[in-house]
Amino acid sequence: MHAPDFWSQSDPGILSRLLWPTSLIWSGVSALRHRYISPVRMDIPVYCIGNVTLGGAGKTPVSLDLAQRLIKQGAQPHFLSRGYGGSASGPLRVDPAHHSAAQVGDEPLLLARIAPTWIGADRVASARMAQKAGATHLIMDDGFQNPGLHKTASLLVVDGAVGFGNGCVFPAGPLREPVASALARTNAVLILGDQAAPHLKRDLSGFPGPILSVHVVADRPDALPIGAKCIAFAGIGRPEKFFATLRGLDLDLLLTQEFPDHHDFSSQDIEALEKQAQTLGGTLVTTEKDAVRLPAAFRSQVVSVPITLDWPPSVDPLSLLTQGRAHAV
Fold it and tell me: Is the pTM above the cut of 0.90?
């Protein structure tokens, strides 16, 4: 889904105001779910990495980073994901050797490279299967708005360049729920990127917990030296963010092409990209998330750019998961 322009405007405008009654219904349903559904407590820690906006904010890189840190400490974390965009209903364990993105979603395939990953709308069922399979910790790559499973700690990820948009709940704006209600369930806020959206500082001013700026760092592949001529394409929440990252690597972008988030690349899409590469003489470049959705034969012709997180030097990221939730006074 392409976000309408008025979602990102500081002044909500007339369209947002017209949609406001529907937003009240959306918010009310969400509030009722959290009020009346009793979350199931697991015998092992459950960490939720979530966001409050529709579209990508950077949850998956954070989930991968924290899982790798836990593994280095000898833990056996498992991921839980809904499997958005996949046809499989779950709960089931993702097998990267046999499952495709069309079956289990693109993000679960990325997660499964690091640790066992379970998909399914029923997070409790997935959690129980993961614990039975030996998980010592559970990391929810989504599910912040899902009240079925008790979270030991929740980190709220915010795209610094976008923030909370116009501050309105869907469909009047990009929010899944009011910011205040999300922050009440949050242990720490992670602002990803080097930019700060207007009003973001104000929107977070009442939050008593840690607010950290985390930089996203692209790891240059050997196939992309400085000045390499590239044809970049991406089907993520904000493709322009990926293209800016490539320019930051001093790559020569001959052409950029945007696709919808979680786009299922068709044979026509692939044929067009191949033709562009041949005509312009550039290397096809995309994100790791997009790469897992490509057919294997075409994927071998494309360079994917991995990203890592650069945390503040004074911060132990895992400590954010073990400290209690702060309360406003």
Answer: yes
